[in-house]
Amino acid sequence: MPDGKSVTDETMTAKPVRKRDSAGTRARILNVATREFANKGYEGAKTDDIADRARINKRMIYHYFSSKEQLYLTVLEAAYDRARSAEQKLELEQVAPLEALTRFTEFTFDSFVRDRTFINLLATENRQRAKVLKKSAQVNTMNSPVIDAIGRIIARGTADGSIRDGLDARQLWITIIGICYFFFSNIYTLSVIFDSDMEAAGSIAERRAHVVEFVLRGVKA
């Protein structure tokens, strides 16, 4: 060739075209939106702030999620999915019934110790009477696997005599979630009422032990 370069040389020295990281951008928007909605609620969170913190143009939010409400719904669905996916890794079928319930209760309690995001999102959605969550096509099926798993634990326990008859899996699940959730959703007011730091490691450990004992006493034959 006139300039002394071969086609191969030009190909080797050409800079690769940089592709847009669509999955990474979407994930970054979701991560930022989760924090914003958890901290400020649906009305308080602004798409401008989400875009700024995600280091993107605001138009990208609507490109991936079409609306603020759709973004919020996706955040809610992702939070439920994370919780249920983590529960399925507990291998509850591999241990004795009472140990399985202990493991599930401890996991539920500890999940709120690690992260209050889910609590804050649920508080917001309950204030709104679940007006956004009820539009989800999948969230009402996400709890089924863990409730089915608890049902099997109850069945195994009644068969071997360790768990009493008459327990309903859904009611037991609500009870376990409820007694774990209440402590963390009200931890600041409880600290004032009892003039005690409920977030202190000792207070949390004491509450954890009580919750596990309470659940086991309620189900034992």
Q: What fraction strand? A: under 5%
Supply the helix-strand structural class. Answer: mainly alpha
- CATH class designation of the largest domain: Mainly Alpha
Distance, first to last CA: 89 Å
Radius of gyration: 24 Å
Which outline best applies?
A: globular
Q: What's the order of the H and E elements?
A: HHHHHHHHHHHH
Helix content: over 70%
Can you count the beta strands?
0
Return the CATH topology of the largest domain: Tetracycline Repressor, domain 2
Can you tell me the residue ranges where pLDDT is under 50 for at least 5 consecutive residues?
Answer: 4-19
Q: Could you name the CATH homologous superfamily of the largest domain? A: Tetracycline Repressor, domain 2
Question: What would you say the CATH architecture of the largest domain is?
Answer: Orthogonal Bundle
Count up the helices: 12
Summarize the biggest pleated sheet: none
Number of domains: 2
Would you write up a description of this structure?
There is one protein chain. This protein has 221 residues and is an all-alpha fold. It contains twelve helices and no strands. Helix 2 runs antiparallel to helix 3, helix 6 (97-114) packs antiparallel against helix 12 (201-219) and helix 9 packs across helix 10 (169-185).
